[in-house]
Design a protein that fits this description.
The protein is of the alpha/beta class. The chain contains 21 helices and ten strands.
Length: 590
Amino acid sequence: MKMWIRGVNLGGWLVLERFITPYLFAITSCHLEGNFCYYPGQAGAIAGISNELLCRDMKACEAVLQENPVTGKQDYPWDEYSLMQAFEKSPLAGKEYLRKHYDTFVTRDDIAALHQAGVTHVRVPLPHWIQLNEKEASPYVVDDAWLYFLRLVDWCRKYKIQVWADLHTAPGSQNGFDNSGRLNTVKTCSEWNENATLSALQNILVAMHNDDLQDVVTGIGVLNEPWKDCHNIREYNRKALQLVRQTLGNMTSVVIGDTFNATLWNDGYWENEPHTYLDSHYYQVFAENTRALSPKQHIALVCRKNARDTNECCHEDASSGEKPASGISRLVSEWSAAYDTEPNELLKEVMAGILETGEAPRLHRNLTQSEQDFVKQFCKAQMVVYESNATGVSSGWFYWNFKMEGGAFAEWDFLRGVREGWIPTLPAQNVSSVSKFGTCEQILYETVNDKSIIHEYPDPNKVDTWKGDPLDDDLVISMGKTDSEENGGESSSPTKEDKETFSGYADDDDDETVPDSAATDDDRYNASGKAPAEKKKKGHGFFTLVVLGFFAYGVKRVFFSEREVPPWRARDGYSSIHGSSTGEAVTMAV
């Protein structure tokens, strides 16, 4: 019986990220002196803190600014390297500052809430310097980070949550992202130090072994998001796997990155290597064309493009793609409910607002009911597709992230989604998401296409950002109209009769789940993009009826409805979540 991985990332904790905790980077001269003032709504700030400790009220505190290498403008520190550089002349204050963050950002209550929500795993980004001495790590601060990791493992042991560590940073940077430890002006692997990374990995593995963590720490990602030009990545993976097997044994799961193109790995790579995973990260916010999509188009993109990308690997029969590999499996360890806002662009506004007023813009932003209704559908669709139950190639997913500071990036906040109800109730670990929520296409059909919830940021008429690849899927194109436009100006909801036209329809108001065996041939067709060979001879009458139904629907759309040109088509097409096919760099937030 398959036991699904349904995890959440603990991002922004032991590896800092500015868009997760903007206030943490908004340091002042008072912070450098060890006088840690706080901001309104700051994550980890002491409840009921007195006003005289608020940074905006401390007139003597001056913002600590540096020239941002990407924008060329004066800015607060933008990555962990520049933040710790600011504390170089006051290292004790830097240590204490990080210690307060480590101690308060992830709490026992957070882990209890994740357990209550049905989360089976947490993915914990670790820095490569976590087992180095102070001199080797400088300017990064080592201090007590490992002790806090051990505390987390104890909590997860209590709540029966598995921990999968992830080597998130690397000496020289494996991609140029800020979350690699140090932001570069370009996205590249060219300065990555492979040998130093292997050494850092070995130090971490030895520490895990010595602290006897294998009962809880059951997996490790050997390098997060290696960029496309990491030409020696296969040799690195081979050596990293050998280190894990020698140190932690053969049962520890090993996760490798897909270098933003899973197809490259569908060549028999590790097809017989058990407990290994090829990892992909899917987001729809880093290209202007996908941010501009309607609600149904966002979900259609999941149903088609993300489904195809997930199923690009890994198969024993690479040419036909019918049989999943007996060894390496697929995993989507980063995705979110964010859909219309480029986080790096909004972060500029957030940091500027903190500098000007002492408070982050959109701190108290809440999702409207219509927005919550949509992101719930968006989450369901992604959970179904990333499990890829029909094809058997995938083992599950991890949501990014467990918590966010304030409301600007609310859609990234899993625990907030649980509290507000837009993270759907997860099925039992041995029950697939498609059995509870229905197929991605059924979820698409149920979604209200309310364009009023799309607030594209930044405004493409004012700020030029990366556009993305051209749109190439008819289903995504066809979902551009609102429900009222489709129905002559009247909005509609699916009726009971409409629902019954789709076999395996799942109503989320009903907490009962059905066994995976209830998934029909049509479910398998929708999820995989083609019908499995062994099923083609069975149930062909029902299959034909479904195909004819979709054909009739397509004829209606093409010949009997007026089709507007979606606004993003005039702006060069839509986004590939893997980045530009021309090699154009994509700024990733996580």
